[in-house]
Design a protein that fits this description.
- The complex is a heterodimer of chains A (133) and B (385).
- Chain A has one domain.
- Chain A contains 2 helices and 8 strands.
- A 5-stranded antiparallel beta sheet of chain A has the order 6-5-4-7-8.
- The longest helix of chain A has 6 residues.
- The termini of chain A are far apart.
- The mean pLDDT of chain A is 92.
- With 385 residues, chain B is an alpha/beta fold.
- In chain B, strand 10 and strand 11 form a beta hairpin.
- Chain B is globular, with a radius of gyration of 19 Å.
- The two termini of chain B are 20 Å apart.
- At the A-B interface, strand 4, strand 5 and strand 6 of A face helix 5, helix 6 and strand 5 of B.
Chain lengths: 133, 385
């Protein structure tokens, strides 16, 4: 992804900012402007806590172009405390010790270093939860 | 709306066609379908394809393929819906004939995957998913299916080997299909010992990348007997969409677009799942077979795998699937696959499926899936008296 795209997504990638629907109250991530639950307009920013649990996971051994140097890595569906599920990499974990239901929390990490475009993308990954409330 | 029938079919073998380009493959399938129908021209062409721009550096396939097939001047356009492109093109052809806009329409699915290999092809296929919120995190297409399969196994307490029957059935059926990529039976031991790709998905859960093209010729049902072939009627045709990302689904383990498109197709054809004699489903990965059978009403939620364990999906079973090898063993040239499924269903209904023939097949269903379930096209075909 180029510089404009990375810049556009900075609030989502770096801060996990989504939306809340003022009609039905559901929290939404990624932001999409129309609530997927009630189909009303939903453009009110909402800051997610970054806490959630592993809903499913896999280890990628055959990465797509641009991710070769990171393989193998673990990708998960993380169910956030506030409801939505996000797709993200897990970090600071041994793949064989990951389990469905495991508590995790968001951290900011390098997603990809695109040498040709001279863009380093940063964004959310999730690690086993070590902070307390 | 007019009734629509299929009066001609054509296909190339599925495989690694190093000698043949995208346009040559498409021509071969179109020429075979036109010969089968006994026609020398057509009014429109819809080309199903996913990857031509990415892999072959070639967009604008409608004009390219129509001209290359000797049909310069006709209406022609490419239809893209990721791995669902093929059946989506047939759906557009169906609408063109049903609406009265055109009388003679060719739908061709073509994919040339071997012009690139490795991580670039993996990245191109991942474009079926959400670029900003899935692919940017390094997830692959296999990876997305692995996320579904792991959750399915967890939620319904299913073992990996319970999916083996899907791959074993597909390979056994492909032995009798001269156009299949892998005409070789496999065993449970082969399945259990296959190399891991994205845990829990291994090599034998997965359909192979391949080159290939398949084509059908459509015309109004009332005119179908004027052509030389044995016509097959499109009794139901429906396309439904869902959110692009698995993480946005209300229930990741439910193919809502499969349920929606199947329900509409059943209603249009005035049948129930019990009336279906064979089902060409989208077994890109074994997990998708289970999810598709459940969403289309052939199994309870969480029980699709049971049909494989019980042998009900075999040619002699209650609902034969992948009767000519499916995506798993016939091969999965992504944008062509949906047309291959329809060509195979037509051969079954004409009684021309050779060693793969399902006895007395009268009603066939096909289902082509784009991405992990975001575009799903269901067709129901019937013998035309």
């Amino acid at each position: 992804m180029g510089i404009p795209g990375s810049w556009r997504l900075r609030n989502q990638r770096l801060s996990l900012v989504g939306e809340v629907c003022h009609t039905c109250g559901n929290k939404i991530f990624p932001p999409r402007d129309v609530c997927p639950h009630c189909a009303r307009e939903a453009q009110h920013a909402f800051q997610f806590s970054g806490r959630g649990e592993v809903y499913s996971f896999t280890t990628v051994f055959n990465p797509p172009a641009g991710f070769e140097e990171y393989a193998p890595y673990t990708v998960a569906l993380v169910k956030l405390e506030e409801g939505p599920i996000v797709t993200a990499q897990l970090t600071d974990v041994e793949p064989e010790r990951v389990a469905i239901g495991q508590p995790v929390e968001m951290v900011t990490r390098k997603l990809r270093d695109d040498g040709h475009a001279e863009v380093i993308s940063y964004g959310y990954k999730f690690r086993p939860r070590i902070t307390t409330d | 709306m007019r009734g629509v029938s299929i009066i001609g079919v054509g296909q190339t073998p599925v495989g690694e066609h190093w000698e043949r380009s995208l346009r040559h493959l498409a021509y071969e399938a179109v020429a075979a379908a036109m010969k089968d129908a006994g026609i020398e021209g057509a009014h429109a062409m819809y080309v199903g394809n996913m990857l031509s721009g990415e892999i072959s550096g070639q967009s604008h396939l409608g004009a390219l393929i129509a001209d290359f097939c000797g049909l310069r001047g006709i209406e022609a356009v490419k239809v893209e819906a990721a791995c669902g492109s093929g059946a989506a093109a047939v759906r557009m052809g169906y609408l063109a004939v049903a609406s009265g806009a055109h009388d003679l329409v060719i739908c061709v699915g073509v994919e040339k995957m071997t012009d690139d290999v490795g991580s670039k092809l993996t990245a191109a296929l991942a474009q079926a998913a959400d670029a900003d919120y899935e692919v940017a995190h390094g997830v692959t297409f296999v990876g997305l299916n692995a996320l579904l399969m792991r959750r399915y196994m967890h939620e319904y307490r299913v073992r990996h080997e319970d999916f083996a029957g899907f791959a074993i059935n597909a390979h056994a059926n492909a032995v009798g299909n001269p156009n299949a990529m892998f005409r070789k039976a496999i065993t449970l031991e082969d399945f259990k010992g296959a190399d891991m790709i994205a845990d829990p998905i291994n090599l034998l859960d997965s359909s192979p990348m391949a080159d290939g093209a398949a084509a059908v010729v459509l015309c109004p049902t009332e005119q179908a007997h004027a052509f030389r072939g044995k016509p097959v009627r499109i009794a139901g045709s429906a396309l439904a969409t869902d959110c692009l990302s698995i993480h946005d689904r209300h229930d990741p383990l439910w193919l809502q677009a499969a349920e929606d498109s199947a329900r509409r197709a059943y209603a249009q054809a005035d049948i129930t799942p019990a009336d279906v004699d064979l089902f060409e489903l989208h077994d890109a990965f074994t997990i998708m077979s289970a999810l598709s059978l459940e969403a289309c009403g052939f199994a309870e939620r969480g029980k699709g795998w049971q049909l494989a364990v019980d042998g009900e999906i075999r040619p002699s079973g209650r609902i034969p699937i992948c009767t000519m090898g499916g995506l798993k063993a016939r091969g999965h040239p992504v944008g062509a696959t949906g047309v291959y499924q329809i060509v195979e269903a037509v051969l079954q209904l004409r009684g021309e499926a050779g060693a793969c023939q399902i006895h007395n097949a009268r009603v066939a269903m096909t289902q082509n899936i784009g991405g992990s379930g975001a575009t799903i096209i269901t067709h129901i075909l019937e013998v035309q008296e």
